[in-house]
Amino acid sequence: MTLKQLQYIITVAETGNITEAAKKLFLAQPSLTASIHELEKEYGISIFSRSNKGIELTPEGEEFLGYARQVVEQADLIEERYTGRSFGKQRFCVSSQHYSFAVEAFVKLLQECGGDRYEFHMRETQTYEIIEDVAKLRSEIGVLYLNRFNETVIRKTLRDNNLTFESLFTAKPHVFIGRTSPLAAKETIALSDLKPYPRLSYEQGNHNSFYFSEEILSTMDSDRELVVCDRATLFNMLIGLNGYTICSGVINEELNGPNIIAKPLEVDDYMEIGYILPAGIRPSALTANYINYLKEAVTV
Description:
Number of strands: 12
Structural class: alpha/beta
Oligomer: single chain
CATH class of the largest domain: Alpha Beta
């Protein structure tokens, strides 16, 4: 294995086309193909699947790509540190449940560390995909929560994927509602207060188990259920339909506007919110900085 071979894999994955990748790498296509076959043979894996439709990463290829990117990025850092030359764009990816503080930390990281050339990804996505993204090194870090209901299942899933969980803070459950909601005048909200109103939650795709729900009390019966995929839609429905969602209560008004408010929920429960990392891999400098910005965002 060589660094060049790893760069070849990354370029082919990015272009999705051997011919295009060969042009970008200034290589003859047969030489590029032979180099990839050599690497696949060395490790006894199939990195790409080939068909009439083109070329795609296999599941083991996705995992290999994550490691390849880590190695190439570390090599670039060494070169930059000791030669002073910059090698391409800075790249960073985080996968998270729908938390405004995670976005706030991401914005801070970009402002402080992005530099002149970067490619940063902020994936607000489904709970199982967060775990999968970090396990396969598509994302450097993931942000999600544990509580007494989901902890056993989530921790087992993390162990099975060789991931660790580090706690950021523990929150008492709140509800997000619109500022003009009939519930807005209450100091605290009881579960019985919520019954007349639509409950909003995030779609969890193929892993739509209660244990992977982004909202606590997901097994609680509700006559009116609205399931959405993104935060903007959820917030619009909170306001327009007097809906609610159960959450941590942490919100950034600067990023999300003044029309969503959080009210304490009268239940005996908690949300331990933290971040997940691959076990045995030292976090990159960008990941370490992002963790610091996460901690700042939840302590101000």
